[in-house]
Amino acid sequence: MRILVTGGAGFIGSHTLLALIEQGHEVACVDNFSNAERFIPQRVMELAQSSFPVFETDVSTWGALDAVVKQWGKVDGIIHFAALKAVGESVAQPLQYYHNNLVSLLEVQRAMQEYQIPNLVFSSSCTVYGTPKQLPVNELAPLQEAESPYGWTKRMGEQMLKDAVGANNGLKVCLLRYFNPIGAQPGGRIGELAKGVPNNLVPFITQTAIGLRQELKVFGNDYDTPDGTCIRDYIHVCDLADAHVAALEYLSQSSEPLSVFNVGTGKGMSVLEAISAFERATGVKLPYRFAPRRSGDVEKIWADPAKIMSTLGWKPKHSMEDAMRDAWRWEQTLATERKG
Ligand code: WQD
Description:
By secondary structure, this protein is α/β, with parallel strands linked by helices. The protein is built from 11 helices and 13 strands. Helix 2 (39-48) links the parallel strand 2 (26-31) and strand 3. Helix 1 packs parallel to helix 2 (39-48) and helix 5 (94-114) runs parallel beside helix 6. The chain has a 7-stranded parallel β-sheet with strand order 3-2-1-4-5-6-11, sandwiched between helices. Strands 7-10 form a two-stranded parallel ribbon. Strands 8-13 form a two-stranded parallel ribbon. The structure holds UDP-4-deoxy-4-formamido-beta-L-arabinopyranose. The site of UDP-4-deoxy-4-formamido-beta-L-arabinopyranose has 18 residues, from helix 7 and strand 8.
């Protein structure tokens, strides 16, 4: 298939481009490079040993995809990653988040209608479940009010797509609700580029281990969990990338207009367990201390991935140690490049 990947220079987008090419698809990358580097798509090309077009385009500009589709030609599907994703920043700049994340999704749908592109995979998030009443959480769990404008853009994005599918014969959409994506391409050539001080746990761990940060603060040790720290479902970015390929292949063959899948491992892991996994995988001792709870953190959440496993035949192949080792290798790549 010929797949357009918006946000293809980002963390999940770049790994998905690679997975798509490796599984025989043709790709084009669209990115405005506001939060991504130009060398990333180049590295994907090196890894894949093939080239693809890269369009420097802001998808949140109305009409932006016209030139892309006119230039690249027939498109069978779009994977729409392009979005702002920093939870804290979204609280400080809500309009920017609503504008960027929602107008881009509208523009994607406009182009799909205009050029009869049938298949869309949308990046949603486990954040739509808020604090789930039952664990593991499955796709039928009620959605809750979002904790941040970022979270609302995911809820609203899902709703917009549900309405669009209801009205438009021919549009097929897959919502993937990601749990916590971590790790990097195993060779350490591409990975997550955290802007400024990382908000997310694993980039903070690897930056601390390499000496860019003094110590990790573990936010809260008085939660109602076995060791008192929060529990999440960490998923290797390469497994997540494979889930996108599987979702597209499923969409192209299915008559189901809207499908929703959790993408997680089904295993909950505490912050302290994540630190131990990092230390085991890398042999590096991590300096950390307990700090007060971070506002907005859910105590515990992990996925029930039964639906994606049975429907798409997808399953995670990488362990937490694999993810930590790969994230560490990527941090070392960055350190070497900073020196050079
Ligand atoms: C994980 C755990 C922290 C940093 C966010 C978004 C979500 C999704 C993924 C984004 C928590 C603890 C963290 C630190 C810590 N989508 N922690 N010290 O909050 O589960 O999810 O990212 O694009 O929508 O909300 O991920 O990695 O920030 O935190 O103790 O310095 O690590 O409290 O328990 P989170 P995270």
